[in-house]
Amino acid sequence: MVTSSSSSTTVTPVPAPTPRSTQTAQSAPAPMPAPAPAPMPEPVSSPAERGRIGLCQSELASLQKISPKTYAAKKASFDNLIRSASVYTAVRGDINAQTKDTMDALYKYKTNQMCSEIERAVMDGLIRRGESVK
After folding, report:
1. Which one of 31, 45, 46, 79 counts the least CB within 10 Å of its CB?
2. What pLDDT score was predicted for residue 49?
3. What's residue 20's pLDDT?
4. Could you give the 3-state DSSP secondary structure of residue 2?
5. For 132, which DSSP code?
6. Is 3 helix (H, G, I), strand (E, B) or coil?
């Protein structure tokens, strides 16, 4: 830029324009859509059955205080049942409908049987403790 006054001329530098990049704005790349979640196998149990299993676990924890020896045996059986059911759940989506129906019934039966045994052990332990009071 050039300015002039009555006796002298002053030159003031003007900054050169900065070159523009080919991108108009510096923004983050557009987010990629999230991959679809892997299909989950159908649930083996209903919400009521899962509630029963939760109650069963709670009674098992109570059994530890009531009868530690009985608890150890029931806990080992319960854990084995859960491990087996987990393996079945992992492959359930890959098997035919008739096998699913059969295995669902088997695990429902085994779970109900195990929970009934735990419930009975809790009751027996509490009865023994109650009857020992004189």
Report:
1. 31
2. 76
3. 52
4. strand
5. T
6. strand
Nearest partner of 56 among 78, 36, 84, 37, judged by Cα: 78
pLDDT digits (tens, 9 = 90+) for 30-41: 544 444 433 333
Q: What is the dihedral of CA 101, 103, 108, 111, to 10 degrees?
A: -170
Q: What is the pTM (predicted TM-score) of this model? A: 0.63
**9: three-class secondary structure by DSSP:** strand
Q: Which tokens in the block code for residue 84?
A: 């087996």
Reference 121, options 53, 65, 49; nearest CA is 65
Helix axes 47-66, 68-91, angle to 10 degrees: 150
More confident residue, 33 or 126: 126
* 69 contacts: CB under 8 Å, gap ≥ 6: none
Amino acid in position 118: I
